[in-house]
Amino acid sequence: MTTIVPTSEEDPALSVVRFVADLSWADAGPEVAEGHVSRLLVEAQECLIQERWLDLASLILASADVIFSKASEKGF
Predict the structure, then answer these.
(1) Would you say residue 55 lies in a domain?
(2) Most buried residue among 3, 22, 24, 61 by CB atoms closer than 10 A?
(3) Residue 35 domain-assigned?
(4) Cα angle, residue 34 at apex, residues 30 and 35 outer, rounded to 5°
(5) pLDDT of residue 76 exceeding 70
(6) Is residue 3 part of a domain?
(7) Average pLDDT rounded to a whole number, residues 6-20
(8) Average pLDDT in the 33-40 region?
């Protein structure tokens, strides 16, 4: 059995968006990635505030799709 322990005040959904966005933009370098990750976080916050859950899920899945496409190109 797993227990989730919150380690910050940040909403867990935003933590997931940040993690997935960081992974998807990691190859671009920190200068480029920072702007894109920040933009995604702002958009995710707007989705949370407006309770647009499908849009939030789409943001996460779009970033995850980038990660999986990179992994398949590398042969993982």
Answers:
(1) yes
(2) 24
(3) yes
(4) 130
(5) no
(6) no
(7) 85
(8) 92
